[in-house]
Model the fold of this input.
Amino acid sequence: MSPTGPKNPVSSEPYSLLENSVYQDKTQHIKGIRHYPVFVSAIIQLAEEAKAKGSPVLVAHHVGAAELVFTDQSNFKHISQQFGIYEALYGVQELIDHSLAQSSATIKNWCIFADTILKIIKDHHIKEAAD
Done:
């Protein structure tokens, strides 16, 4: 995870918050979340900054710079239950140029993370509606 993020970011704060809120292995892959509220706050801030970029390409590069690579998805259900995460991820995913995921591993990792969290939330709401 790059603590400084992309060149000329709006703020480097979400990148350092992300780095400090997770446990990483030697290859910098996220193996656990240390502080869920801090992690989600950083994701929300990152998403807001990305949306301010305007261009789908700049949005994608901004969130991709977070380099979110998880060793597994065991934390995803708990992340999906955090306040504000749906709106933040949905807003970015609507703007992002998804074709960039074909040529950028960091953007692909962001899209996997965001799409998986959004699917967990959607599936939960469908299950609740059926009950």
Remarks:
- Residues 2-10 have pLDDT under 50 and may be disordered.
- The first strand starts at residue 22 and ends at 24.
- The first helix runs from residue 13 to 20.
